[in-house]
Amino acid sequence: MKKIISFLRLIRYVNLLYIALSQYLVQYTIIVPILAQANAVPTLNPFTFFLFVFSTVLIAAAGYIINDYFDVRIDVINKPERIFIDRTIRRRTAMVLHQLFTGVGVLLSLYAAHRAHNVKLGFIHATIAGLLWFYSTSYKRRMLIGNIMISLLTAMVILIVVLYERQLFYPESPAINAAAYSIFIIIFFYFLFAFLISMIRELVKDMEDVKGDEYYGCRTLPIAIGIKKTKLVVFGIAALILSFLIYLQLRQVRGGDFISVLNIFTTLEVPIGIACYLLYKADSKKQYSLVSSVIKLIMLMGILTMVYFYYLMKK
Fold first, then answer.
1. Which of 97-101, 216-220, 238-242, 271-275 shows the lowest mean pLDDT across its residues?
2. What is the rounded CA–CA span in Å between residue 130 and residue 48?
3. What is the pLDDT of residue 177?
């Protein structure tokens, strides 16, 4: 039982659930309903879409494994209670699991790409697997490069679902063309939100791990410019997100939809404000960890807004 729990924590099973939930909600609360209004059906059937999501989850799990594989020494300082490799899971087993998950994930993505009539799409998962490897071995120790890379890959979880929808790129009627335009706009907003909120979380994690990172010669932003200036960068990104949310609220106000305005305020803007306040007061590892947890909750709330807007669209 101890090994199973260690394995689940090693692959960050909660994060994997976030990934699967995000892709399913993009497909079934945005793409499928909007295509249905144009009398079109999605390119991937439910079973193939499940394989597509499973391939993404496997690639992400492999990324978490290889990240911990190369971080064992740093984690002795940063996260001693979360070291599983060399304790309950052998290094060789971890490497075999990484290769197995990556291989199966890429094969499943190639199959889904074949069913989407574009095999080239399958190489996106292979490229992401490669980037996760280089992130773990090198880029995460460089200032901002690793933060930007992992934030883009997180946002790609949403964008990649659209790339597999052939009809959005080759519309067969004006109605599908209009549906594609609507879907691209919505996905762009979610992609942008996912990228920016991930950037905040990555920078907060760097502040939380500054002791071990500095000891092993990493050049993260808090080490390069200091904690106070990094907090200012985070507040700047948070202000950008809030500006973007206020823009969306103004659009809803013009349509007389005040419930959505209130929904965005309570589920996203207030928690972002709380996270910024907690970050402003934070000066210990435990407090940075609390900020990171609040941001993770904001991510979940952001994902669940898709359900809200789905029911709004169905009314």
1. 216-220
2. 24
3. 92
Which two structure tokens, joined as six digits, stand for 87?
A: 């304790």
Estimate the crossing angle of helix 13-25 against helix 145-163, to 10 degrees: 40
CA distances from 214 to 139, 223, 261 (A): 15, 7, 43
Tokens describing residue 236? 């700047």
**Do the beta carbons of residue 52 and residue 113 sit within 8 Å?**
no
* Predicted pLDDT of residue 212: 84
42-63, pLDDT tens digit by residue? 999 999 999 999 999 999 999 9
pLDDT of residue 72: 81
Residue 86 region, left (φ>0) first, then alpha (ψ -120 to 50), else beta? left
**d(Cα 218, Cα 236) in Å, to the nearest integer?**
24
The predicted-structure confidence for 247-271, as pLDDT tens digits, reads as follows 999 988 988 888 889 989 999 999 9
Q: Which residues pair with 224 in a beta bridge?
A: none
Can you tell me the distance from the alpha carbon of 195 to that of 199, in angstroms, rounded to the nearest whole number?
A: 6
Query: 174: which 2 tokens?
Result: 């004006």
For the chain, the C-alpha Rg in angstroms (whole number) is 20
Average pLDDT over residues 155-178: 92
The torsion of the CA quartet 243, 290, 303, 144, rounded to 10 degrees, works out to 60
